[in-house]
Model the fold of this input.
Amino acid sequence: MRGRMKGLGLLLLIGLLPGCSSLSYLHHSWQGQRDLLARAEPLEQVLQDPATDPQLATRLRHAQRIRAYASSHLQLPDNASYARYADLQRPYALWNLFVTAPLSMDAVAHCYPFFGCIAYKGYFDQATAEAAAAQWRDEGMEVYVAGIPAYSTLGWYDDPLLNSMLHWDDNYLAELLFHELAHQQFYVKDDTAFNESFATFVGQQGLREWRAEQGLDALQTDPKQQEREFVQLLLQAREQLVQLYASDLGDAAKLTAKAAVFAQLRRDFQHWRDTRWAGDGRYDHWFAGELNNARLLPFGLYDQWVPVFAQLFAASSGWPDFYQRVEALGDLPPAAREARLQELRQSAADGASEAQSD
Done:
C-alpha cells in the first residue's frame, strides 16, 4: 500500500563501524546512497533547463513551496534537504524487507550505528531485497517486501526530492515531505513505532494546515477516509494475532487459529469493499499476495501511536511546544515510554468514546 510506506529506509554512514551487517549489505547500501546523491541536481538548475518537462517543473515548484512552508509554519528543520532533484529511473527509492517468526508479531530488528535498531531492512534494488527475503523464508520466517518512495537520512545528508515522490497528487507530496522532515526533527533510537507514528501525525496535521494556508477546502470528505478504514481493518486482525500468540495454546492450535484469522480478514475485506465502498478495488492488490505476520507489520509501526501524538498536539500551544512534549516523551526510558504511550492512547480512546456518546 503505497501511502503507508514512508520511512527511514536505512542508513548511512554505516560503513564507519563494522559488525552490524554483512559486508555485502554494507557495500550495497553505500553504493546505493552514493548513486542517489550523484544523480541529484539543484532544483533551480533543473527548473532553468529548457529540456525539463513542463509538468515536472510545475511539480518541483510546488514542492519548493511546500518545503518552505514546512520550516516557516510547521517549524521543521530549515536546511538544504529537498533543494535538489534526483531521477532514480525506478519507481521506488528503496524496497524494505519486514521479517517475523510464524507465531510472532514482533519484527526481526536490524541494527545500525547511529540509527539504532529498526524494524525493517532497506535495499536499493528490488531483486536484492527479494533474494534476502527468500533466504529468510528458507529459514522458516515470514517476510514482506514493500516499495518505499522516500526515506530520511536524519540530516546526515541533504536528502533530495526523488522522482518516486512525485507519482501521486499534491496532497500526497505535501504529507510525504512533512513526514520525512519530521524524522529529522526528532528521532528515538530503537523505537520504530514511535518514530513512524510521530512522523505520520506530523504529515497528516501538516497537510491539514497547508491546505488551509492555500485557501483550499477543509476536505469535508476526507480523501483518506477509505485508507484509514482499510488500515483499521488490518490493525484489528493484527491485534487478534498479538493476543493469539500470547495465549497458552500450543503451537499447532495457534497455527490453526492464525489461518482462521487471515481467512476472516479476507472475508471482512470483501464485505467492507463491496458494502462500504461499492466494490472499489484499489486495495485488491494487497490481498492478492500471501497474508502473513510480516505483511501486517508496517500498519502497526506507522499508525500505532498516532492518536497519542494527536492528543499531545491538541494540548500544545503550537508546534514548538508540541515538539518539546514529544521530545520529553521520547527521552523516557523504553519501558516508561511504552507505559506512558499506552496511558495516553487509552485516554485518547476514552475521549473519542465520550465525544461519540454526546
Remarks:
- Confidence is low (pLDDT under 50) at residues 1-20.
- The first helix runs from residue 23 to 39.
- The first strand starts at residue 41 and ends at 42.
- Strands lie at 41-42, 84-86, 94-100, 110-112, 116-118, 121-123, 142-148, 161-162.
